[in-house]
Design brief:
The protein is α/β, with parallel strands linked by helices. The chain has a domain of 194 residues: 3-Layer(aba) Sandwich (Rossmann fold). It contains 14 helices and 16 strands. Strands 2, 3, 4, 5, 10, 14, 15 and 16 form an eight-stranded mixed beta sheet that branches. Helix 10 packs across helix 11 and helix 13 runs antiparallel to helix 14. The longest helix has 17 residues. It is globular, with a radius of gyration of 21 Å. The structure holds S-adenosyl-L-homocysteine. The site of S-adenosyl-L-homocysteine has 18 residues, from helix 4.
């Protein structure tokens, strides 16, 4: 098969493989999402009904509003610092933060303390975010990396950010773990394979139940740099973080790499750069990395449970009281955000709280 001419990135990936050899899954994912010219996030706004996928803040304003009230409550727990960096990682269209800031108006002390920092690598989405914050009376600064955000007391929010960070895969082959790679097969197609040499010293980093998984098992892990940077800031500067994503509470085997385009699943090796590629978040690994650097871990909780604790039922009733004609839509949004079942987010999505070691309790996690 010839390279897909609609996917200029495929030509580039084939070129790299022909020069450097088979490409680790993490490198493939990083190129698909972040290639400066052809990366999926670099060129488009992928969100909403017209786009490829929908997220919790795009489903209902209630989500961002509850996160805003959580942030204000967390600021109280922090001792009401006069200035606080409210940081969002991967803000998409800026919807969650807009809803959060509007809801937080009921606590003017918090609103006045906030300096907003948005961490976004996509020029297309940065542009979209600038439009959405026009007329919002809070100081906003954009950054390409969390490392560039000034130090100081902080509240860090991330919804569906970690799933988009490149994931490594190892595949168990003949009793050893090998990095999973993408090569060009005998039919001249992109295909999964395994690196010839096993990964050195790999097993001792694995949880015991995974070490001796049967042949063919896949184990996924991410670089811990983002988790360490969050943990470092919380532990040093007094801060809190809320990380929300789909994933599993305990590390486990399983291939969760997925491509989504036009709201349906597609083959991750077809049309690189044209579909969103993500993988589930390993919350045990994320918590362990932040804990090891001195942050305190709260939860994780399932998203449904967390939103119920924050009072989503009351929020829905208040909205319905103002807009009776939207009752059905509001009930459907609550079900989608909190319900069980594969169509809903309530159980698949987890919420991890993180804080400075002195903050023993966080709103919603007690
Ligand atoms: N939080 C939003 C958007 C989720 S999509 C929502 O819930 O609707 C993922 C977001 O993370 C996008 O804004 C994407 O451009 C951004 N992103 C992905 N990788 C990133 C990286 N390495 N650094 C900064 N932002 C990134």
């Amino acid at each position: 098969m010839m390279a897909d001419l609609n996917a200029p990135l495929e030509r580039e990936i084939r070129r790299i493989i022909s020069v450097a050899g088979a490409m680790p899954v993490s490198e493939y994912m990083a190129l698909c999402l972040g290639h400066p010219e052809h990366g999926y996030y670099m060129t488009r706004d992928p969100l909403g009904a017209q786009g490829d996928f929908t997220t919790a803040p795009e489903i209902s304003q209630m989500f961002g509003e509850l996160i805003g009230l959580w942030s204000a409550a967390a600021w109280h727990h922090m001792g009401k610092p006069e200035a606080v960096n409210l940081i969002e990682l991967g803000p998409g269209r800026g919807t969650m933060m807009n809803d959060a800031l509007r809801a937080a108006k009921v606590l003017p002390g918090f609103r006045n303390a906030v300096k907003l920092h948005l961490v976004e690598i996509s020029p297309a989405l940065q542009k979209r975010q600038r439009q959405s914050f026009e007329g919002v009376d809070v100081h906003v600064t954009w950054h390409e990396s969390l490392n560039d955000v000034p130090d100081g007391p902080c509240i860090i929010l991330a919804n569906e950010f970690f799933d988009a960070l490149p994931v490594h895969q190892a595949v168990r082959t003949d009793g050893a773990w090998h990095e999973r790679v993408i090569a060009i097969d005998d039919n001249d197609e992109l295909a999964f394979g395994a690196a010839r040499e096993p990964l050195a010293h790999f097993e001792k980093f694995l949880p015991p139940q995974i070490r001796s998984a049967p042949d063919g098992s896949v184990f996924e892990w991410r670089n811990d740099a983002a988790a360490y940077e969050i943990g470092r800031r919380l532990a040093r500067d007094r801060g809190v973080a809320l990380i929300i994503d789909y994933g599993h509470e305990r590390s486990d085997i399983g291939d969760t790499l997925q491509a989504v385009s036009g709201h349906t699943y597609s083959d991750p090796l077809i049309g690189p750069g044209l579909a969103d590629i993500t993988a589930h978040v390993d919350f045990q690994a994320l918590a362990a990395a932040t804990d090891s650097i001195g942050a305190r871990v709260h939860g994780p909780l399932e998203q449904g449970e967390f939103l119920r604790r924050l009072g989503i039922a009351n929020r829905a009733n208040a909205l319905k009281a103002n807009a009776a004609h939207r009752s059905e839509e509001i009930d459907a949004a609550v079900a989608r955000l909190t319900g069980a079942g594969t169509e809903n987010m309530g159980r698949l999505f987890k919420v991890l709280g993180l804080s400075h070691g002195d903050l023993k309790a966080l709103p919603g996690f007690d």
